[in-house]
Amino acid sequence: MEQIWKDMLTEHDKKCLANQSSFQPRRGLGSKPALIVIDMQKAVIGDDMPIYEQQDRYPYACGNFAWAAIRHIEKLIPYCREHGIPVVYSKHCYRPEYGFAGRPANDVFAADNPNCNIIPELTPVIPGDTVVEKQGPSVFFSTNVNNSLRSKGVDTVLIVGNTTSGCARATAIDATSLSFKTALIEECVFDRLEMAHRANMFDIQYKYCDVLPIAEVYEYLEGLNK
Questions:
Q1: Disulfide check for 149: which of 94, 140, 154, 194 has CB 3.0–4.6 Å away?
Q2: CA dihedral of 144, 197, 180, 223, whole degrees rounded to 10
Q3: How many CA atoms does the CB half-sphere of 104 hold within 13 Å?
Q4: Residue 202 and residue 85: Cα distance in Å, rounded?
């Protein structure tokens, strides 16, 4: 995990972190998790190629960084379904009736824009999957996600999706603030800029919640079934 951000640390930072008490230890997870899949929409994913080669078509795309994460997420989602773990999807979405008249009609996040849709590789396919439309960064802001998870007895939130510096981070902070055990899955989140991705992964682990490699997440989930 340190490999993600260690090249960004200055000598000053390394000396501060040499005192392990200044870096948050693992906070741990609970016994009843849910998976939150954040904004896996075509508009913010684009094609599996470098971002700068497709900005004319997908100005918000995360490109190859997103697709690297998708290859993990599309295996994790069915695993969670098979083991009775709730899966919550979010879509960043605007509708005229929501009062966003100032946004252009062809906005990529307009409900009637095809690029607003969740990509086919990750589209919800079973009735138990929940899809929440949101207009702010956090999945919890002005939605019923908190109440829905509480009603299912969920005490742990596993976060995947986009972006590390934006909606994934905001959701992680809100989940922690709402007293959920929270983890960002390292291989399953991404950003447009490598610097932003690495810095925010460090910041989230340092201040808010666990950042875990997917191998450890599978170990955790398998341990729940024993």
A1: 154
A2: 120
A3: 4
A4: 27
pLDDT one digit per residue (tens) for the chain, 226 residues = 456 777 778 888 888 777 766 566 788 999 999 999 999 999 999 999 999 999 999 999 999 999 999 999 999 999 999 999 999 999 999 887 776 655 666 688 888 889 999 999 998 877 778 899 999 999 999 999 999 999 999 999 999 999 999 999 999 999 999 999 999 999 999 999 999 999 999 899 888 999 999 999 999 999 997 7
Kindly report the CA angle at 193 between 192 and 196, in degrees rounded to 5?
115
Exposed / middle / buried, residue 133 (Cβ in 10 Å: 0-12, 13-18, 19+):
middle
Distances (CA, A) of 74 to 122, 177, 202: 6, 28, 25
